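The passage that follows is intended for readers who have already worked through the single-chain material. We present the inputs for a multi-component assembly, then the predicted structure in tokenized form, and finally a short commentary. You are encouraged to pause after the input and sketch how you expect the pieces to fit together before reading on.
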Amino acid sequence: MSEPAKAPLKPAGRGRNLELSEELKAYKGVWVFIEHERGHVHSVSWELLGEGRKLADQLGVTLSGVLLGGPDEDLDKFAKEAFSFGADHCYITRDPVLKGYRNEPFTKGLTDLVNKYKPEIVLLGATSQGRDLAGSVATTLLTGLTADCTELSIDPVTRALAATRPTFGGSLLCTIMTLAYRPQMATVRPRVMAMPRGDDSRTGTLSEDTLGLIETNIVTKLLDFIADASSNKINLPYADVIVSGGKGLKNPDNFKLVFDLARVLGGEVGATRPCVQAGWVEADRQVGQTGKTVRPKLYIAAGISGAIQHRVGCEASDVIVAINTDPNAPIFDFAHYGIVGNAMQVLPALTQAFKAHLDARIRKVA
Amino acid sequence: MHIVVCIKQVPDSAQIRVHPVTNTIMRQGVPAIVNPYDLFSLEEALRLKDQFGGKVTVLCMGPPQAEEALRKCVSFGADEAVLVTDRAFAGADTLATSYALAAAIRKLNSEQKVDLVFTGKQTIDGDTAQVGPGIAKRMGLQLLTYVSRIVETDVDGGTITVERRGEGGVQVLKTQMPALITMLENTNEMRFASLPAMIQAAAYQVRKWSKEDAAIEDLTKIGLKGSPTVVSKVFGPTPRSEKAEMLVLENSTLRDVTLTLLQSIFTRQPTLEQDLLDKLSA
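Having made your guess, compare it with the prediction:
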């Protein structure tokens, strides 16, 4: 990693090739890898189509989805969903060895399609599957890959992808470009981009390719898939209401107050990294740079200072309410409403207030 | 078994602060540490060594001061440490880094056959998680990322079975060695450095390789030259113009403040109230 410096920086020369060759200039089109697992597409793929649509429109090129899967998987249905979210075309590769994610067949599947159809931009979700695949594909293609982007745009001069991401834990942001190589690859975490509106009247075209791998030649075998018990599922990224606790709660028992409020609001419970590291709550509840990115309608932060690493995880929330005893806490710089007070008193008061309000409204209707 | 563990020395990003006036990173006094994710991989490698015998070599591409991080790994029980250090590596992105590390591992393999390569899941400064997959691709190693548990290792048969975290569940994968594994965090607990290992570490001479020693052939593939990605801009996040609307507790009761807050929230996000009511009636 180069040393960050005062903005803005010019790209370093020193004999680097920063010019796109004629051959690479011919690469056109924005692609989104559509990730699915056991009959269900990961929402990050739709979020990326929404973003990809904007990029494709700016470039005046086609937006395509890429679907790899087994012959008995619902790829045509997923393609229809992709069209509704903005894709013009879907590339499909069907093969028994593509049932269930494995690095080798998926890397070959995506790499072959890229080499054949030459897109200028390829986007993947920064999930366990996406990151595993993106790194392998980028290295196979010997091209640039920017991970965990928070913003994507097209540079009007070069028509290149400008990928912005946090650096050094989120303290600074940097914009990264892949000027002389194609395709330009980027991964984006779930919930960083907004979910686009679906339009069922939209249609698109399909094309199908073959993989050319046989099971006996694939070294890694997928023996089993053990699903998580559904009772354990904490779905923070897609929660509409989140109540989060930080070290300002003083001890893990006070998290009960966070859970109480979340329950009344039908919401999820989140936490800061220090709380997770201290073992106060499960790691899946961590909101922030290295945790989950969330965009709920309501985010209540109790006893959270609002350090940048946490901020980047929750600042896209529609309404942020912060409770902290320190009036200078950085959280008040980006929250919408702030209460300087003790969370141990304010949280139960909020719980009671919401409960009373909602109960009264329900009785009115009944 | 011969296991190579790739590590990186990183600034402790949790401690990094941005200068409020100049908007640059204040690096002074920020300690350099072994990338925390690497330690889970190192611990797993050491456990395999405990179980099957053999050797753990830690490898790092970095500036001279990264020697300290390698020495730390020796104090945990690694047998050998190699620092691949050369001015020519400066400015490397993940593609250029994986090229250099793959070359170094090939060199190590020529000395003693490598059965497994471990890397950390990602670094706390780069956060890309790309170098592990990059090394595996370049070396033709089977790649197993996000491993939550090593289920079984058959040294004679040359196979390894792992649990890998996916969406909504865990995959059970079996593959042939040599393979590259990245461990998920919190899958194990790092051991304490034993006194004999600490003594060994203090006296240990870290092997230092230049790009020639690491048998790196193509100089256009390393450092800045070998990096397709270019940092075109570094900047601080734009501060929001509006700060929070503060509700003051001194002037009103807590009850009044919460009622005011509720009204403000429902006005600002008009669909929220109905969502909450729907959830209650469901």
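Commentary: Chain B has a mean pLDDT of 92. Residues 240-282 of chain B form one domain. How closely did your sketch match?
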